[in-house]
Structure formats: structure tokens, C-alpha cells
Design brief:
The chain has 211 residues and is an alpha+beta fold. It is 27% helix and 34% strand. Strands 1, 2, 3, 4, 5, 6, 7, 8 and 9 form a 9-stranded antiparallel beta sheet that branches. α4 (129-137) packs across α5. It starts with 24 loop residues before the first helix and ends with a strand. 21% of the residues are buried. The mean pLDDT is 96.
Length: 211
């Protein structure tokens, strides 16, 4: 049986320097994201969201990013879920995109805010009907008796709302407003490239971090 300590990967697929990256980190994110998408990576929009609740306990989970622009990174969830309650109590988060096929990761840290209700409405109504019903049926993060509970609730709300369910008041989007970025490219001998963006006087500045 192979020991975990013996598992090693040599990273050879790219490099990253201060001269390579865009001046704006959101632009650099879009460049790398498009390369990940064109590489046919499964769900390149999957990211880990880490939060800290009101008692100081950390937790992390994978969600799908739905919008990225100069205002920040948007994802959607049940505001009454564990992550929703943590982000409301402590509105700061860390995001991580990991694309092992490209030997890359992107780390983002920032403050969190709810997006406008109109934006949440627009995205909710763009979703497939079963997903819209599911947002009503699932008391996310709560203990339930079994899968049959979800099936029954989905049927109940399907009958109630038919083809036009409204957005649940407890469901919507969060925006992570970045305060720093880090772009990581795997390199041989564990001498990885790490380029960090930090804000100074409203401007982004890059610096290299030791691997």
C-alpha cells in the first residue's frame, strides 16, 4: 500500500512572473479562467469558499461561481444555511480555485455582502424549474429525516407554485469583494511561482511570495 508521504507530483506545465500577469487581478483571473475553460476542465467554475462563524469556527465547502466582474465574485446560496449564517455574522471569506490539470490555483480574500434583491431575482428566474423548486424544498444544513422528506417537499412546492415559483426570501447571492489575490503556478522542485496582488491607496500592486 502506497504511503501518503510517498505521493509526489512534479509540476512542469508552466511558469509565472511579475511581467506575465495583467496589471488588474480581475483581468488576470479572466485570462486564467478562460484557459481553464478551454482546457475542458470539469467545472472550472467550482471554488472552495471558506468562512468563519460567530463563534470563530472555520468551515469550507465547494460552490459554483456565477459572476465575476470588477465588483467581485458572486455565488448563490440559502442565507439560512451554515455558510449563509457564518457569512452574515462574519462578512469575510476566502475563495480558492484549484485546476490541477493546469497546475494552478487562485486564492482570493475579501469582505462579503449580499447582492441586490433584483440581481438575486434575475438569477433565480434563469435557473431550471427543478432547481427553483429545490431552493424552496431544502432547509439547507438542517437535519432531516431522510431523502423522502426532500422528495415530499419538492412535490409540495411543485404543486403550490406550478411553473412560476417566486424566489424564496431566504435564498440569494453573496458578493466577495477582493482585498487580495494570489496566483500560484506549480514549478519543479517545489519552487512554485506565487504572485500576490495587494491594494495600496486604491491601486493594485504585485509582489512575489516565496513558495
Amino acid at each position: 500500500m502506497t504511503r501518503l508521504s510517498d505521493l509526489r507530483q512534479t509540476y512542469m506545465k508552466g511558469s509565472l512572473s511579475e511581467e506575465d500577469v495583467a496589471k488588474d487581478p480581475t483581468e488576470q483571473f479572466h485570462i486564467w479562467f478562460e484557459q481553464a475553460r478551454q482546457s475542458e476542465i470539469a467545472e472550472p467554475n467550482a471554488m472552495t469558499v471558506a468562512s468563519i462563524d460567530a463563534s470563530g469556527k472555520p468551515s469550507a465547502r465547494v460552490v459554483l461561481i456565477k459572476e465575476v466582474d470588477q465588483r467581485g465574485f458572486v455565488f448563490f446560496t440559502n442565507y439560512e444555511s451554515r455558510k449563509g449564517q457564518a457569512l452574515i455574522a462574519n462578512p469575510h471569506a476566502a475563495l480558492l480555485f484549484f485546476w490541477p490539470e493546469l497546475e494552478r490555483q487562485i486564492r482570493i480574500e475579501g469582505r462579503v455582502e449580499k447582492i441586490d434583491a433584483s440581481e438575486s431575482d434575475a438569477y433565480y428566474h434563469s435557473r431550471p424549474l427543478d432547481s427553483r423548486i429545490g431552493a424552496w424544498a431544502s432547509p439547507q444544513s438542517q437535519v432531516i429525516s431522510g431523502r423522502s422528506y426532500l422528495v415530499a417537499k419538492a412535490a409540495e412546492y411543485g404543486l403550490k407554485f406550478a411553473l412560476n415559483p417566486p424566489r424564496p426570501p431566504h435564498w440569494g447571492g453573496f458578493r466577495v469583494i477582493p482585498e487580495q489575490f494570489e496566483f500560484w503556478q506549480g514549478r519543479p522542485s517545489r519552487l512554485h511561482d506565487r504572485i500576490q496582488y495587494i491594494q495600496e491607496n486604491g491601486q493594485w500592486r504585485t509582489q512575489r511570495l516565496a513558495p
